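ERR on first pass: missing label on line 2. Operator R.T. fixed the label and resubmitted. Corrected input:
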Amino acid sequence: MSKILIDRRAALAGAAALAAAAAAPRATLAQAGPIRIGMIVPLTGSGGPYGPVMAKAVKAVADEINAAGGVLGRKLEILVEDDQTNPEAGVRAARKLIDVDKVTAICGTWASSVTTAVAPLCWESKTFLATVSGADSITLLPHQGFLVRTQPNTTLQGRKFGEFALEQGAKRVFFLTPQTPFADSQFVNIKAAVEKGGGVAERLIYDDKKPSYRTELDQALAFKPDALVFGGYTADTTVLVKDVFRAGFSGKKIAFAYSVNQKLVDGVPAEAVEGIYTIAPSPAEGSNAHKRLVKMIGMDNPDPYTTQVYDHINLIAMAIAQAGEASGAAIRDAIRKVSQAPGGEKVDNALDGLKAIAAKKPVDYDGASGPCDFTDIGDIADCKFRYEQVKAGKIALVKIA
Amino acid sequence: MLAYLIFTLTIGGIYALLALALNLVWGGAGLVNLGLAGFFAVGAYASALATGAGAPILIGWGAAILAGLLAGFLVTFATLRLRDDYLAIVTLGFAEIVRLVALNERWLTKGADGVSGVRAPFKAELGVAGFNFFYLTLVAAIACLVWLALRRLDLSPWGRAAKAVREDQELARFAGKRVLRIKFEAFAVSAAIAALAGALYAHFTSYVSPDHFQPLITIYVFLAVTAGGVGRPLGALVGGYGVVLFLEATRFLAGMTPGLAPVQVAALREIVIGASLLAVLHLRPQGVFAERPPKAPRLP
Amino acid sequence: MTPLAQAILNGLMTGALIAAPAVGFTTIFAVLRYPSFAIAAHATLGAFAAWYVNTRLGAGVPLSVAVGFLFAALVGGSLEHAALRGLRGAGALTVSIGSIALNLVLENAVRFSFGNDLRGYDLPLAPDLRFAGLRVGAQQIETLVFAAAIMAAVFIFLRYTRFGRAMRAVADNPDLARLKGVDPERIAVAALMLGAGLAGAGGVLIGLDTSIDPLTGFRVLLSVFAAAVLGGLGSIPGAVVGALALGVAEELALLVLPATYRTGVGFLAILLMLTFRPRGLLGERAV
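pass 2 clean. output:
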């Protein structure tokens, strides 16, 4: 037995020696070959509908940058790993990207649980992390600046849902949502906004794997709402919108643009989705980033996660150029110099940004998901929202505000 | 690369513990536990919450073992009289209920947010790399201890009685073995080991959430036990490490399949995992380390 | 009173959706004595095949359901036979584990070919019919009719065809059946095809109501298990009753429990059932 148990002091000494050995080769290895950037997205499991197109968008941007000569004279190499929508698998994927591929940054983490699990590995290894996860708790982690998030937090977003419902003349708003990290805070913010306008709000949290939600819906309709807000993802929202149509609900329907996206609209009969409003973070009107992205991936209505990862990769590429060094710490220190330099040149893609940086001009990136200006803890400071409505099977822009 | 290897082997040790737990009930007493992820979750949450409330880490691990035992008793209380196939389905349901409770009882578990910042022992003193190495040895040592203990148990009269139950309950009962009690004990101890694995996992990655505990983990552990050899603790130990190394190795398939979209690579990877499990079941149903039937005591 | 009646009605409609896969599951169990996890994949396979003939070739609902049945039976059923036949000697649990692996392979084969995007059938939606303060979906009634028709076909097959009778004989007593000259291998194939086919047809019905993706079958797997156990493993009428009872229990529970625990209700029902009546509603002994 004593052969197996190592005494504690010996273990500590061994560990320290190993730590020194592990740290040494990193610095010397960095400068050769392509700049590697990791992506951890859900390709299997419940987040599966989102990951593939996110990966496609990031690869398209990287190809474009590489065709124009790369960053710092080096090509970008994108390494995509599947997190199976499971933090346990996500952590293993992150370790491989960080330790084997030595990526300087990871982008795209989707499920809040995966992001929360992966974040400590990133800040400990000084790898930069850009995420689309919505849980408010994520930017409160002690990430030392190594994390930014492009998804608006619930205070920014929940209020918009409430205010928009009021604007549509709704006084009784019902929020239907699966159990998510933001189910509570989203509702609190919706409720506050609705009550401020003299309305009332109620909610129901449902089980997101069921083939029908008739009784849940009966409970919601018993509240006599004049607006329903859907808080789920595509799979469960598909079931819900069909049941809502069958129930003959004639009030307003509002959803996240990532749930009622083009895929959902294509997948259900037009009458079930007709008139649904969707809300997504957006750049100011007139920004070209969104249009560029549409052209680049050949998809009319990229969902909000795709617009966000488009911004991740552009920002990371520019931050590396700005810093003159491809490392996580360099990206951390430079990211706000390219996302929001005061008086900087407005750019909406990395190609223009890289030219401006080469000309030593300050840069202020406005992306496809919003202005991408980050607070100190890595939340987006403010953004416009894109209000769209489903009309005859197409998602049509209503306004940007 | 070294850091990655250290990490992979640490996770391997945790899977080895889970495999040992499963081997005890499945290989030992012939009971199937498809709720392994549930017991894993119970332990992870018990320790994360206890240490979060200020308890020392060792107390947290103790709490995890206790919670595992308790959960094991609870599940077996209602189901042990059932036939195996029923037990399989009920334990599967147990895991789902644990996940639902963790997801919905926000006051206790912080809901879908999960519990982050779970304390990692000696991390401040050792630094990141030092801690990772320390934890690798710690998990390996615990896995080996559990293995040695289970091997002893396996060869003890209790172990032989358990296997008698596995082979033929009626005969075992006829031979005077207390069948129900043996099943009860096997199940509870196994649940406790799985819970300990959960606690070790929580303090290693510092985070637990309901998303961690999906049925896929249970499938991987079954792969570990079948590949290693059902009924032999050594098989489970090696199988646990082996399965994590194998899972990680399939990751490098991506480099060999140019021209496929990432989602196809991910699908291919899971196909390979499923097909391997099938292949192992077919080619080596007794596992790499086949069970050795104990020798009959020699008559004088 | 109305909410209660409405919940029961909703429950029957939800239950009808999982009845066909539950019967499929229990058929395989009755003949081959192992719980097959590959039912989930069979349901998905059927749903995708039906989606193809519906959206690409313009097939109507009855034809789509038939295609779903046939495809799942021929592809899913025979793959399950080929992949797991060699394991039957090693015991039911080993075969069951094998079926988990097979399910993983098939689910990902669908993902490899079609991706994760949601797909919907090309069918108009109709608003619910209302009477006496209750509402029923026109399509749910159609689903119910289909489910009933499928069940009736299964009953007729099992009761009045030679093959069906042989299958029942094997389920009741395999040794006796062998003595009587029934070829167990052929019966095994037939049971797997019937089981997988029923799961496939059920997958189509679920797809009509929702939308389909590689996880279509997996999402309802726990409910299918629960329904089969509730009705009594191995009992075909039991699986139908179990599915309907589970549907009603889940919807009724919503009136008192938070909706998020809906999946949990199925398992509480199982626990209660097994504690007080271990053989399920209509099943054999479970002890």
